[in-house]
Amino acid sequence: MRKKLAIISTHPIQYYAPVFQLLAKQLKLKVFYTWGEQSLHKYDQGFKQHIVWDIPLLEGYDYTFLMNTAKDPGTHHFKGIINPGLVDAIQDFAPDAILIYGWAWQSHLKALRHFKGKIPVYFRGDSTLLDQQNGLKHLLRKLFLRWVYSHVDYAFYVGTANKAYFRYFGLKERQLIFAPHAIDNARFELSASEEAKALRENLGVGINDILILFAGKLESKKAPLFLLHAFQQLNNPNLHLLFVGNGQLEQTLKDTVKANTINNVHFMDFQNQTQMPSIYQCADLFCLPSQGPGETWGLAVNEALASGLAVLVSDKVGCATDLVDSTVGDCFKSGDIGDIKQKLIALTAQKQTLASMGQNAKQKIQEWSFEHQAQAIVEYVSR
To answer: Could you tell me which residue ranges the Glycosyl transferase family domain spans (predicted)?
Structure first.
């Protein structure tokens, strides 16, 4: 008999829905979305616009949107998710186990506390210790999080840095199960060469030029301004830099480019999921220079690797330990402009070297798949 699994998640997410579809083939699954139906047309604080994904996120599995009574609904604060009917709805489903994505909202923490000791409580999150600081505030947070995670029976960790985080806050080795962070590798691997070629031509990037890509929210924790300053100092007309996305630093970035008459820096607005493969494939090198605080894994790196791109990331990016080595790119010390410049110069010295790294990248990312993630969950829930 298939086990019944209840999943608590805030809203439909392009990195989770495909996993739910796979789980539903092997488990009796129901997903409880706590933000409510309004999350389908949510305002993204980082991108500064309403986001509606252009790939199906509600097909192939059972789900329900719970009533959210928060005065200011959303995931940006603890009291943005309040569901008076959450416990009753889950109990009506009568699951054999529950999997909760994130604790930092009132209803999610309530569910952790309520179901502890009643059914196995699984947890999924991708936090790291990369922003840890000493002091009283840190000590109080440590005590609080050890209490939070005392309500978790097992945690599905996404990678090395995330595992260290769970261990630090009290979970034992036997409670930790590897379920790799993943994206839709197949969709990003699929060739979009014609679209990519046209995009390079429209940007004015020559066939022998090297295009560096930043794709994501233009916000301080991802440090796009730092990348721009480093790129500017390289002063190499055969290098181009493309920013794809929107956010709080967008105008500052554009003003800086205009004031300094930098002709080889380009901008594109936020692009939806179906457009992203061709954007990655038009580039030669992907760069995520995050400085935090609050950067976790960096799933854009997965997307870049699956698209056949070499990558350069800072040591504040959670996936750096697992996904980035000399065969696919490099890692630099966050905030060290000398280090990122040195790494950029080395990586962009030979276009063919980047192409070889891109081929290695496609191979490396194969094990970090939705299928591997789903199978890990099924195996442990079904025990």
So the answer is: 200-363
CATH number at residue 164: 3.40.50.2000
Question: Cα–Cα distance between 290 and 161 in angstroms, integer?
Answer: 15
Q: Are 280 and 309 in contact (CB under 8 A)?
A: yes
**111 and 222 share a domain?**
no
Residue-level pLDDT at 235: 93
**SS3 of residue 103 by DSSP:** coil
> Does an H or E element contain 311, and which?
strand 310-314
Q: Domains in the chain: how many in total?
A: 2
Residues 156 and 211 in one domain: no
What is the Cβ-side half-sphere exposure of residue 200, based on CA atoms within 13 angstroms?
A: 22
* Alpha carbons within 13 A on the beta-carbon side of 282: 26
CA-based radius of gyration for the chain: 21
Q: Which among 282, 278, 346 has a CA at the least distance from the CA of 312? A: 346
Do both 362 and 373 map to the same domain?
Answer: no
Per residue in 261-306, pLDDT (tens digit) is 999 999 999 998 889 999 999 999 999 999 999 899 999 999 999 9
d(CA 112, CA 209): 52
Q: pLDDT below 50 — which residues of the chain?
A: none
Q: For position 48, what pLDDT does the model report?
A: 60
Q: What size, in residues, is the chain?
A: 383
Cis peptide bond N-terminal to 277, omega within 30: no
Residue for token digits 């529950």?
A: 98
